[in-house]
Amino acid sequence: MFWVSRARLLVFLALPSLAFLFLQQLSSPSHCPDVAEKSSPTHVLILSSWRSGSSFVGQLFSQHPDVFYLMEPAWHVWMTLSLGSAGQLQMAVRDLIRSVFLCDMTVFDAYMAQGPRKQSSFFMWETSRALCSPPACHLFNREAIIPSADCRILCGKQPFNMVEEACKSYSHVVLKEVRFFNLMTLQPLLTDPSLNLHIIHLVRDPRAMFCSRQNTELELMHDSHVVMGKQWNKMKSEDRPYHLMQAICQSQQEIYKAAQLLPDSLRERYLLIRYEDLVRDPLTQTSKLYEFAGLPFLPHLQVWVRNITQGKGLGGHPFDTNSRNAQSVSQAWRWALPHDKVVQLQKVCKDTMSLMGYLPVLSEKDQRNLSMNLLSPPEIP
Ligand SMILES: *[C@@H]1O[C@H](CO)[C@@H](O)[C@H](O)[C@H]1NC(C)=O
Ligand SMILES: *[C@@H]1O[C@H](CO)[C@@H](O)[C@H](O)[C@H]1NC(C)=O
């Protein structure tokens, strides 16, 4: 009698834990076909600076049907914590990026207004093809090239939680950021076992960035202030553009040099690309970018890349220059900037330029002579 009841008692006691184990088995990834059969996602960070063609490179990825893309998620951090400097905000930016790579969008609770949100609460959400097609929005096809202007009108009312659902349905998550100033901050993400992070470092001739920034000075004012922090108010206003470019040039040099010092296994997760090489030969360079990210260069994307880089895009295309040829746009600074400004800029960005292979012009005559080539291969430090 005693033994029987003891055995019963044991079974009785063991049941809940057996049931628990059974349920755990059911819910563990190996029993969940959605998750188990996909290999783990690839994460790509397009690391760049303002006016460097990063929106264009972002679009190359965003329009790929395997990619969930967001442009500048850290914009929300900089806008919300607007009294901080870039250095003070870098860890908040890094942690946000990590969460977004893992499709955890609750991180935006800290940076968005309370109350019901739509997917349109995201900065520049309409530049993400993934947010314009299923499961986020059913008005476009997932495999189509989707112009952001059309998407903005048709898909803005979708609820915020669609963003997370959409993100989880892709094999690649790609983010574009201009708000990192060194590689050290990002290093923990490169070694994080829950991420498979690849970094595309996009640089552009500082003289072209400078030229382009002049036309967008007001738009960039808030960001410029955050980049320079407290120093901003101490600077003479005419010196500010040069101090800014100096800070940007320095950070690009630091990132490039730090990448060369990574151990081999991580070194191959970093790719430097110059905007000028991309516009010279868009198809070859795009193919290189896709290969680095493990994405096929699909035929409709090849046609599209050829179209937009020859100025045949149908409105709202990613070169913000509508119909002019991208290659000549990348040389616009040579006739638009006064030579004395170029000389001053070449002084503050000297080391970065020589590292990245941007040759200085030594006279106004050389600056205006467009047959003079100003590109050499980047140095390996
Ligand atoms: C490329 O351009 C042609 C001619 O303007 C157009 O008919 C076609 O739809 C475009 N294709 C893509 C994928 O952009
Ligand atoms: C412009 O540059 C090219 C290539 O360096 C050179 O051959 C040519 O003489 C230059 N033209 C003028 C007007 O200086």
From TrEMBL:
**An annotated GO cellular component:** Golgi membrane
Domain Sulfotransferase positions: 41-356
Q: Into which EC class is this enzyme placed? A: transferase
Instruction: Give a GO biological-process term.
Output: carbohydrate metabolic process
- Membrane topology according to the record: Single-pass type II membrane protein
Q: Which controlled-vocabulary keywords does the entry list?
A: Carbohydrate metabolism, Glycoprotein, Golgi apparatus, Membrane, Signal, Signal-anchor, Transferase, Transmembrane, Transmembrane helix
Q: What does UniProt give as the signal peptide span? A: 1-19
Q: Where in the cell is it found?
A: Golgi apparatus membrane
- Tell me which InterPro entries the record gives: Carbohydrate_sulfotransferase, Gal/GlcNAc/GalNAc_ST, P-loop_NTPase, Sulfotransferase_dom
- Which domain of life does this protein belong to? Eukaryota
Task: Return the protein name.
Answer: Sulfotransferase
Whose protein is this, by species? Phascolarctos cinereus
